[in-house]
Amino acid sequence: MSLLDFFRQLSHLGGLPAALLAGAAAATIVIVRDWRLALFAYAVQTTMLAMLLAQALPVEWALLQAIAGGLVAVMLYLSARQLHVSGQAGLSWEARWPQMASTSGFRLLAVMLAGVAFLSVHESVALPRVSPLFRDAILWLMLLGLLGLALHDEPFHAGLSLLTVLGGFSLLWFSLVQRRMLIGLADAGQVLLGLAISYLVVSQGLAGQQAKQPGEISE
Amino acid sequence: MTDTIPGPLLLLALLGLMAGGLYLLRRVEALAAPAAAGLALLLAIGLWRLPLAAPVRLAGRGVWLGQPVAWEDLSLQIAPVTQALLVFLLGVAAVTFILAWRTYQGYTFYPFGLGLAALWAVAAMLQPLTLAPLALALAAILAVFLIQAGKAGETRGAWRQLLFPTLGAPLFLTAAWYIDQAPLNPDDPTPYRVAGWLLIAGFVLLLQPAPVHVAIPAVAKQAPPVVAAFLWIGGQSTTLFLLQRFLVTYPWLASAVDSARWLLWLGVFTALLGGVLAAVQDRLGRYAGYAGLYDYGVVLVAMGLRGTAGLPTAIWLVLTRTLALLTLATGVALIRHHLESDRLDRIAGAASRLPWATIALVMGGFALAGMPLSAQFASRWALLQLLAENDPRWTIFLLIGALGVTIGAVRAGRACFGKLSGAPVEREPRGAALLAMGLVIVSVLLGLFPQLLTEPVAAVILPLATLGP
Questions:
Q1: Partners of residue B137 in chain A, C-beta under 8 Å
Q2: Which residue of A176, A189, A203 is in closest CB contact with B152?
Q3: Whether B102 contacts B431, CB under 8 Å
Q4: For residue B154, which residues of chain A lie inside 8 Å, CB to CB?
Q5: Among B29, B144, B145, which would you mutate to test the A interface (most chain A Cβ atoms within 10 Å of its Cβ)?
Q6: How confident is the model at residue B451 (pLDDT cuts 50, 70, 90)?
Q7: Where do the domains of chain A lie?
Q8: What CA–CA distance (Å, rounded) separates B245 from A111?
Q9: Which of B146, B141, B145 minimizes the C-alpha distance to B96?
């Protein structure tokens, strides 16, 4: 079975479950501090978005979206992993113990408030040529993406939040416009954006490690 | 003609190939800087001198500058007014590459600078117009690597300048769909109204006036000063050019959302905020950022007055601000490099060791404030008169901003005097001093003889006022 066939069969499961999973993944990105969980949530979100898009676009084009998202996830994983591994080398057992962020509760509350706001306005928002399910998914992803941008100032989580906003927009735009070239351009832009975010993640992460001996990263 | 090379293709291919080659040679700065500057200058001269309407022979091959390149729905074409912008961008790039070489701005600037110039050129040449902001978003993504310049540490400046254009591009794409829908039901004004608001919101994110100006001071603090000046000059000029193209191509946009009033208010607020904050900064980089923000607000005000004589004034301001920003950035870059800091309490003694850098710093600040004997004075004076005819209160706000920028320049200049507090500082290199001297002299000359710019401004006004889709 080819990747395309597999994705075609998978896309039949799209609809409400895919929208719910994408929404939950967006909330996870905003709330959790752990980079592995956030990155896993982004991967789930990208896959679910591609499954939703398969209802509006030919499956091949929707698969392209999943591949672009996958490439971004790989770049971010490599960046975060490199920092994590080199940052923990030589540290004591106590220093390597996982740390919980005390602001996670606050971010959970913010997401819940965003949920209340979403529930109170989503039916009054009119988006052209999209089903109510798509409308809700678009609104939720954009709302949580913007919330994530407001709450996070480090490039990893803020970058994932920006990608979440753009993911919500892609649902809207690809429902309105189905042109192969524009989809290719948008996906190429997403990969470039992922590269820039990964670069910023490494740049910021290395700063903490180089506090003892400042230097430059390889360009 | 089928055997001719289209101008856009040649331009982008040369910029792209040189950028790729220079990335491999980026550590050989003595080669990379002159090569990048030479290509940019060559292309600027070529675009300036060669005709658009007919093919010419170059190195045995036919080249037709005005010939469009099409790819499915997209096309790239050099129109007369695009030609003027491209000459300006490439000319600025050539000067900036040489300045960057002598002021230690980092060796990645040359390949990425050429890449940025190529993306700005794409934004200027691209049809359909509503897709052009995508090229600006890509330029913002590329600029991340320039601003960070290989340094580990704070990423706020790079992140902020990436964020707003990336969020703005989707608004233009959605507006494009509404614009396409409007002719299907001519009696319904809703698509135009929605598209108008989406375009205005998109332009606010692209232009980044106050209060969404946060990228400008962050970039000023983080990026090498000459690189930051290049980003502002190129990015802001291209965005303003796009705004003018939108306003001329979609005349309903001006009336649907009263864009002139929006620009005026945003411009006045930006100038006032930038000026006031420029007076109270404790770092040269941030001072340069807020002084540049003040000046940018003034240009937005001129764009808001486009219905009267605002457009020629805006073009005049864009030309003179380029010189002022580069002068200020050169001074800041030299002082920051030699004294290893740009904090006002750590640059004492700069005037004795780096006299031309200090003069460039103060003269650049005065020029951005629009003081007499600077290149900006005549254009700023013309704008203030124009603005006073509309509403004298706005003039007062701009003057308050100018006072803030002047106070900041005086504070910065004053901090450069006194005895050196730290380790001995090397004297400024002769090449860098000559460049700073040259910028200051040209600025004063243009302040004394502003009519020198009449011809270039006049050459751009007509095509810019009538440019089509």
A1: 189
A2: A203
A3: yes
A4: 204, 207
A5: B144
A6: confident
A7: 9-84+99-204
A8: 41
A9: B146
Residues B468 and B387 in one domain: yes
Cβ distance A217 to B152 less than 8 Å, yes or no, reads yes
Picking from B206, B235, B254, the residue at the C-terminal end of a domain is B254
Do B263 and B249 share a structural domain? no
A216: which chain B residues are within 8 Å (Cβ-Cβ)? 150-152
Q: Mean pLDDT lowest for which of A8-17, B252-261, B401-410, B443-452?
A: A8-17
What's the number of domains chain B is made of? 2
- Tens digits of residue pLDDT in A2-31: 766 776 676 666 788 999 999 999 999 999
Query: Which of these, A75, A73, A25, lies nearest to A49 by C-alpha position?
Result: A25
C-alpha–C-alpha distance, residues A203 and B373, integer Å: 43
User: Do B149 and B61 reside in the same domain of the chain?
Assistant: yes
What pLDDT is stored for residue A212 in this prediction? 45
Reported ipTM exceeds the 0.85 cut: yes
The secondary element (H helix, E strand) that includes residue B74 is strand B74-76
pLDDT (0 to 100) of residue A208: 65
Residues spanned by the domain of B444: 258-469
In this predicted model, what pLDDT tens digit does every residue of B367-419 receive, in sequence order?
Answer: 999 999 999 999 999 899 989 988 889 999 999 999 999 999 999 999 999 88
Q: In this structure, are B151 and B298 located in the same domain?
A: no
Report how far residue B198's alpha carbon sits from residue B459's, in angstroms, rounded to the nearest whole number: 32
Q: With 90 as the cut, is the pLDDT of residue B139 above it? A: yes
Q: Which of B210, B232, B254 is the last residue in one of the domains?
A: B254
